[in-house]
Amino acid sequence: xxxxxxxxxxxxxxxxxxxSKLINQDSVVVVTHSSRFPLHANYGLLTQFKERRHGDxxxxxxxxEITA
Length: 68
What we know:
The chain contains one helix and four strands. The chain is mainly beta. Strand 3 (46-54) and strand 4 form a beta hairpin.
């Protein structure tokens, strides 16, 4: 995902994606966003496992938690 950087609705978009049928246990979600708008560590069952910052850009990488 590469939303417009000043768009603060990115949290809602990632939350909706986390709860959708598009995401399964093998999914990896990569979100590029402004460092001024940090994302949460968790969205539903999506958990951030990497984050890289490059100036005003941040790349957050999530994967789905596997539930027993």
